[in-house]
């Protein structure tokens, strides 16, 4: 028995793919037996009771059994990777059509707060039953970041010594290179994947200048980890031609994340407290409305002076330290780690940044789960 995924097709048109099997008087037994075969040990445990239910139950009870089976099939499909949030409302993505009834599942509303409502429905004869429930289909941090269309995004989830391509930009081709790959340590990010460990004096990652780095407005976003008793170090910088300063930099100093941008000879600075020994989301925006710093999705400080140029120097973007073009040296290394560094060529709004950072990592590797207490029966 086939289970079918109704995927979006063409220019936004979505069509359900239906395969129908016909049967005779024994059709309920056939369909339920086939569902057991599809689900195996991980699905609804009908097994020996299939024939008993088919023989003894009334039409409404049989419809409820079909509805529950539809719900179980829908859950199995979502666990297997089906994107239920993209399915059309009311258009079945599970659909078995019988001579005298139907078994189907479909989405019933717009996803809210990462949750989507699914209805498993069963129709046999004149009896119809349905079982509604919610599933948490929230996406992970990287998917949320990429959905906001950055011009570059470096996950920093490679093990340096095993990554000959360097630090990969998953949006474009702006890959980075370790300054000292032999000194590149490895830590662990909040998602259990590798993260680089910069040890305050050796390694950093350089990304060669690109034209898109000459920004008149921008948003930078990243996760930062620093240990206890760490006093000073730069997480990200875009250098200048001067020997002892950067045009744009994000650094950690005495328990604060600090963003400093030099624009037309004037330095604008914002800062906000960050915890040590934990992963902290740091983002800043720069443009006509000035310079904003956000820590864990909340606004920490605003400098209202207009920012006209961000990173307009032709030097490398450096992560984990500062590259001083005037002397050709790298300095002010951070001790700690970074993950999921994004650059946007626009100013993200406060709500977008709160949405991006507010749910933390929210592991997308874990399968979506049914929201506890969300089951609701209905019979027509």
What are the main properties of this structure?
alpha+beta; 380 residues; eight-stranded antiparallel beta sheet; disordered N terminus; 5 helices
Account of the 3D structure:
Residues about 1-25, about 40-50 and about 240-245 have low confidence and may be disordered. This protein starts with 7 loop residues before the first strand and ends with a strand. It has helices at about 25-40, 50-55, 60-80, 140-145, 350-360, and strands at about 10, 15, 95, 100-105, 115-125, 125-135, 150-155, 175-180, 185-190, 195-200, 205, 220-225, 230-240, 245-255, 255-265, 265-275, 280-285, 290-295, 300-305, 315-320, 320-325, 330, 335-345, 370, 375-380. Helix content is about 15%, strand content about 35%. The relative contact order is 0.15. A hairpin with a 5-residue loop joins strand 9 (about 185-190) and strand 10 (about 195-200). With about 375 residues, the chain is an alpha+beta fold. Strands 7, 9, 10, 12, 17, 18, 19 and 23 form an eight-stranded antiparallel β-sheet that branches. Strands 8-11-20-13-14-15-16 form a seven-stranded antiparallel β-sheet, with no helix packed on it. Strands 3, 4, 5, 6, 24 and 25 form a six-stranded antiparallel β-sheet that branches. Helix 1 runs parallel beside helix 3. It contains five helices and 25 strands.
